[in-house]
């Protein structure tokens, strides 16, 4: 048995004037056609703030909210209706520009779960044909329902081939549309014997940006404003209007260079938490011992292929 270890380091959000804007949510997993509740906190007086709802790199909704508290700090509650376009996750970004022209921002990522509003019943009858060559399928669903039925042999099903359409593959295809892959938090469940399809669960997470500009970049936004943005020492040299992002160590990289397999930052920040094809194949072999092959790079079993 091996051992593993790790380290954690907390870095405070960069704000020379100690002004912070923080958004949290009491909704851990949002449901389509329901409300998601958010709480915006600030430790400085303000009259209003702006917020934007982002999904797959597209702005779904934007508006401004008047502040109801009086004094130096308080909490404002928002309720946003979750639409199907926000699946499998969406981002809420809050932005405020102070009277001195300082831009303060924060964001949060919320996972979305789709509930099937129409109940579908499937019955299989293999006793009608005594030769066992055919199976009768009976599907009951409300009027206007769309459904698809696909069958496969058990040996083919255990291989979990990539051309089959599953909910997990639909979710991963939607998550690839996110402009910042490192902000996507997921949990994957796989069967070693291929008894069930892969299950992917998205997780809600708060912004990990260390200053205002990086917080906007994590949310998939670029800044086009004359507002003042405070930068930590060694940063602020990347031109966001030309598509350059901060590495955090003084160097820059382009947005299209994220997870391209080449290290463009000195600290490797542009290639962190990236899923490459080679990593996926190795993960697949480790998860399913039945697919391991000796002396061949193809993850197939000849015995199973012969049965097909």
UniProtKB/TrEMBL annotation:
The keyword Transport does not apply. The keyword Disulfide bond applies. It comes from the Eukaryota. Keywords: Disulfide bond. Disulfide bonds join 247-265, 259-274. Residues 21-159 form the Alpha-2-macroglobulin bait region domain. Pfam families: A2M_BRD. It comes from Halocaridina rubra (Hawaiian red shrimp). This is Alpha-2-macroglobulin bait region domain-containing protein. PANTHER family: CD109 ANTIGEN, MACROGLOBULIN / COMPLEMENT. SUPFAM superfamilies: LDL receptor-like module (SSF57424).
């Amino acid at each position: 048995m091996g051992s593993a270890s790790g380290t954690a380091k907390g870095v405070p959000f960069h704000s020379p004037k100690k002004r912070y804007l923080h958004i949290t949510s009491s909704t851990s997993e949002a449901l389509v056609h329901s409300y998601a509740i958010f709480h915006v906190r600030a430790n400085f007086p303000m009259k209003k703030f702006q917020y934007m709802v982002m999904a797959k790199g597209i702005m779904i909704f934007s508006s401004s909210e008047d502040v109801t508290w009086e004094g130096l700090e308080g909490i404002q509650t928002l309720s946003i209706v979750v639409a199907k376009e926000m699946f499998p996750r969406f981002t809420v970004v809050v932005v405020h520009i102070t009277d001195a022209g300082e831009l303060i921002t924060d964001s949060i990522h919320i996972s979305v779960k789709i509930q099937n509003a129409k109940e579908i019943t499937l019955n299989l009858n293999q006793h009608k044909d005594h030769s066992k060559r055919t199976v009768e399928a009976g599907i009951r669903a409300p009027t206007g329902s769309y459904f698809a039925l696909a069958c496969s042999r058990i040996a083919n099903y255990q291989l979990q081939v990539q051309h089959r359409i599953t909910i997990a593959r639909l979710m991963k295809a939607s998550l690839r549309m996110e402009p910042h892959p490192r902000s996507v938090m997921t949990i994957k469940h796989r069967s070693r014997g291929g008894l069930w399809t892969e299950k992917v669960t998205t997780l809600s997470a708060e912004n990990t940006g260390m200053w205002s500009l990086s917080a906007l970049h994590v949310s998939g936004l670029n800044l086009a404003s004359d507002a003042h943005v405070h930068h930590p020492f060694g940063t602020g040299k990347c031109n966001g209007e030309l598509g350059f992002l901060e590495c955090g160590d003084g160097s820059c990289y382009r947005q299209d260079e994220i997870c391209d397999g080449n290290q463009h930052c000195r600290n490797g920040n542009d290639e962190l938490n990236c899923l490459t094809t080679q990593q996926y194949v190795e993960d697949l072999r480790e998860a399913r011992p039945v697919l391991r092959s000796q002396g061949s790079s193809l993850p197939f079993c000849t015995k199973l292929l012969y049965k097909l």
